[in-house]
Amino acid sequence: MSRPLLAVLTLLTLAVAPSAVIAQNAPAQALPPPAQKIYKVQMPDGSIVFTDSVPRGAKVIEERDASKAPQLTIPQPARSAASTRPPAGDTRPPSSIDKASGEVEAAERALREAQAELERGREPQEGERLGLKGGGSRLSPEYETRVRQLEQRVTQAEERLKAAYAARNAAR
């Protein structure tokens, strides 16, 4: 390590160390008691504010007992295909939705692989480009056949994925 960098790191360590020691030795602060009343007030500028104490110059619109306030509930996120799978080590037989979701994942993977293979296969291989008499070149019938087969694989993978989606939707 270079000397200037080492000096900077040493200074930073010395600057932070006292605050870490203070924080470690500081007594725990108690939380303030919960508010007993909640006020809905209109501020002088016209804005509406909810608070536990009425600010100076504010007009109280509503007063509520805090202990009777409704409890907030956090909505659960929508279940994804991955969350429909049973946890690892689960010995129960998979349900129809689990099987259908697994088939959707497999079909999506197969489609991605077929598309990648098609993109790689679009590049002519050795012997698939034929020279022309006047110069230039053209692609051979073998190239056209090979690319057509790769395109058919993509089409088949798309059909498999459509069928997998339909089966999963039916299982729901």
Account of the protein in words:
The chain is of the alpha+beta class. Among the domains are: 32 residues, no CATH class; 77 residues, Helix Hairpins (Orthogonal Bundle). Helix content is 47%, strand content 13%. It contains three helices and five strands. The strands form two sheets. The chain has a three-stranded antiparallel sheet with strand order 2-1-3, with no helix packed on it. A two-stranded antiparallel sheet has the order 4-5. The chain is elongated. The two termini are 61 Å apart. The model has no long low-confidence stretch (mean pLDDT 79).
CATH architecture of the domain at 95-171: Orthogonal Bundle
Query: What's the pLDDT, averaged over the residues?
Result: 79
- In percent, how helical is the residue content? 40-55%
Overall geometric form:
elongated
**If helices are DSSP runs of H or I spanning 4 or more residues, what is the number of helices?**
3
As a whole number of angstroms, the C-alpha radius of gyration is 34 Å
Uncertain runs are: none
User: At the third CATH level, what is the topology name of the domain at 95-171?
Assistant: Helix Hairpins
Reported for the largest beta sheet, the result is:
3 strands, antiparallel
Write the layout of secondary structure elements.
Layout: H1 3-25, E1 37-42, E2 48-51, E3 59-65, H2 96-121, E4 129-131, E5 137-139, H3 141-171
Antiparallel strand pairs: 1-2, 1-3, 4-5
Helix pairs in contact: 2-3
